[in-house]
Amino acid sequence: MGFSASVTPGPFLAFLLSQTLQNGWRRTLPATSAPLISDGPIIFLVMVVLTQTPDIFLDIIQLLGGFFLLYLAKGAWQAAQQELQLTKTVTDSIFRTMLKGAMMNALSPGPYLFWSILAGPIVLEGWRQAPSLGLSFVVGFYVTIISGFMAFVFLIAVTSQVNPNLNKRLSQVAAIALLLFGIIQITTGLMAL
């Protein structure tokens, strides 16, 4: 499941693409662990709160996430339009990049759905059999997903070194992907409301 989540195109991969191209792989690499920051509260919410709240809560989170993705798309597009230089101008600190990743993950319905529908029941079942089973699933999932995200960042960093124009094109692709994911999230949230 971790491998599948790390290679499935989505808002977080588009975010990592954008950040790698804007800030370089060294500053983006820590952002691959952003789910460790945001998923703890998400798991708690899913296991305790979301089972007792109306569906509108998830719809509102989806709308907020869509608008945040539009904000990230704007930043990615502006970075793509800037003149590419041999010496990269770093726009975000490591902390800010991680915070953006964690916010994006927390405002996306994907983790809520994943932990409520798929992973949550697996962890609970494993925990009932033996706590070590539930914990081993969680540890294995995060080791795999973060490793996959790290490999993606390295791949983008190497690929963007091949041709400077490719860097600009990849930035544009990231901006368009973030824009589309944002529009999809907003549309889905509004239709659900």
Number of separate strands: 0
SS content category: mainly alpha
* Total domain count: 1
Radius of gyration: 17 Å
- Counting DSSP H or I runs of 4 or more residues, the number of helices is 9
Largest sheet: none
Name the beta content range.
under 5%
What is the chain-wise order of helices and strands? HHHHHHHHH
State the low-pLDDT regions, or none.
Answer: 83-87
In helices, the fraction of residues equals over 70%
Cα separation of the termini: 30 Å
Average per-residue pLDDT, rounded, comes to 82
Quaternary structure type: single chain
Shape: globular
Task: Explain the overall architecture.
The protein is mostly helical. The chain has one domain. The protein is 83% helix and 0% strand. Helix 2 packs across helix 8, helix 5 runs antiparallel to helix 6 and helix 5 packs antiparallel against helix 9. The longest helix is centred in the last third of the chain and has 32 residues. About 3% of the residues have low confidence.
Question: Topology, pairings included?
Answer:
Layout: H1 2-7, H2 11-23, H3 25-28, H4 34-49, H5 56-81, H6 94-106, H7 109-129, H8 131-162, H9 164-192
Please name the defining characteristics of this protein.
193 residues, mainly alpha, globular
